[in-house]
Amino acid sequence: MWPPWTQRAHAGAPLRRKRLRGGSVLPGFGLSLGFTLLYLGLMILIPLSTVFLKTATMTWSAFWQTVSGPRALAAYRLSLGASCAAAAINLVFGLLVAWVLERYTFPGRRLIDALVDLPFALPTAVAGISLATLYAKNGWIGRWLDPLGIEVAYTRLGVVVALTFIGLPFVVRTVQPVLADLDPEVEEAAASLGAGRWQTIRRVIFPELLPAALTGFVLAFARALGEYGSVIFIAGNMPMKSEITPLLIMIKLEQYDYAGATAIALVFLVVSFCLLLLINLLAWRRGRHLREGAA
Amino acid sequence: MAGAVPALARERPEARRGALTEPRWVRWLFLGAALLFLGFFLFVPLALVFAKALADGFRAYVAAVREPVALAAVRLTLITAAIAVPVNLLFGLAAAWAISKFHFPGKNVLITLIDLPFSVSPVISGMIFVLLFGARGFLGPWLAAHDVKIIFAVPGIVLATMFVTSPMVARELIPLMQSQGNDQEEAALTLGASGLQTFFRVSLPKIRWGLLYGVVLCNARAMGEFGAVSVVSGHVRGLTNTMPLHIEILYNEYQFSAAFAVASLLALLALATLAIKSLIEWRARR
Q: What is the largest CA-CA distance in chain A?
């Protein structure tokens, strides 16, 4: 694998030792991997394991009663539903924004392109108070929606608005590079074979974008599911109505109901880990697809 | 084939453009819809932060920012970031070095574990430290006996922030270093450079822009973290309130322009982060 002269330079090192060093002549394998594992263990895995340990102290019936109580069920439903709605909005408009940024030229395109990442960089509390003020009945946007009978702030719709903001960059940023790499010859071929523009988009371009768009959708959905800071300001936080699951966990913690909080957190963590698995699976399949395409 | 297309284009420019782009009204419609969406969800919320911050005039803005409690929140936020960012920088470098330069079994599992904090809700990220170090947590009695306070104190805030921001640098560096390969480091080593020399003279210059972006992003997240910090902080004014928590308190007390004044500082930080990102990308393109 390595050029022969590098092996000669290290011919003194026994072969076994080399294999232990990760099959590379570079130094620092033990140190870097050791530090990585130590930090992961102490900072991430041990703290996370407390959720499982704490839940294990509950009886099965107490656990079941907590995680399937009506208030918890309402919170799951809102969290899943609002996250799904927000991710769907971002799927449609993310495709549109990626298309416009990649295909059209207009003044300010670069600036807008840079600002798409704002939800990654803006603290969630800032986004929360801004959206709540904006979409309140007397807010800049809310006052135009109020006569139409649309209430956003302090309703479930407000939750969707906040989660849409949070998930906005994901679809745009997964679709954009695919769109940029798309070979123009494919479109030219479709056009020269008599396809109309709409047919070309629907039958040629869209299938290419779909895997990336779906990855973006799942990423936005996963991000929205756990979101707390931006939602609580705009949601109204009424139990059974506009209370998201992270808020329910927070309320139980504030009431020192640690077992109840961890039980709901455990359910939520399992859902999140399944989503993470799905994301990695999608990424792996896309990677394989790309590798096969290149070969 | 590729040469023939421009010739065709010169012959019938109108026909070609018609086949390869949308009609003019569709383009306007797409552009308008995209800008309207971004306006409602991005630009107007951003503009509102600054407009509301200055709603009571510039003097009120300065007064709100220079209030002792606000300054204490700024100081705590800076301290938290000053600890969390360097530690995660070290972690990111170590993880990226191990993953990109060596082959070992379970590498994909390791990458997934590094990403794990991203998929944990911020509230749960804070909660796990309460379960571990809180008064009724696993280590609570031992900590109380030794008079160490972690939860509802600064160490808890730092720990929760470190947890939430731990993947930021690693996730920027791993794909970058994987794509760069080992050739240059191997050349340096065979020419007699020591391990540290190779790292500082060869590896570090190659990744400096990616590293800078990772650090900037990590810093933005560390300073802006709300949910996790909110669980472990206890909200003691002037002592355990970071800037986002201070914003929440001001907002809930209806001191809107003061809340937005502090928020505008964090919004400026976010804009600076995006500016640095654009600068790095612009450099990479050149």
A: 82
All structural domains of chain A: 60-294 (1.10.3720.10)
pTM reported for the whole predicted model = 0.87
Q: For residue B125, what is the enclosing H or E element?
A: helix B122-133
How confident is the model over B51-57, as a mean pLDDT? Answer: 91
Report the chain A residue with the minimal C-alpha distance to residue B92: A36
B161 to each of A65, B198, B227, B232, how far by Cα in Å? Answer: 32, 32, 10, 10
- State ipTM: 0.87
Query: Mapping DSSP to helix (H, G, I), strand (E, B) and coil, where does residue B156 land?
Result: helix
State both tokens at A228. Answer: 């707390």
Q: Which of residues 228-247 of B touch A (CB under 8 A)?
A: 230-231, 243-245, 247
Q: What is the pLDDT of residue B183?
A: 87
Cβ pair B85, B218 in contact under 8 A: yes
CA of A31, closest CA in chain B: separation in Å?
A: 8
Q: Which residues of chain A have pLDDT under 50?
A: 1-19, 293-295
Structural domains of chain B ordered from first start: 1-53 (no CATH), 56-285 (1.10.3720.10)
Question: Does B52 sit within 8 Å of A133, measured CB to CB?
Answer: yes
Which of B104, B123, B254 to substitute to test the interface with A, most A CBs within 10 Å?
Answer: B123
Q: Does B200 touch chain A (CB under 8 A)?
A: no
B225 touches chain A (CB under 8 A): yes
Digit-coded pLDDT (tens) for B105-142: 888 889 989 988 988 999 999 999 999 998 888 898 89
Residues comprising chain A, all counted: 295
Quote the pLDDT of residue A295. 37
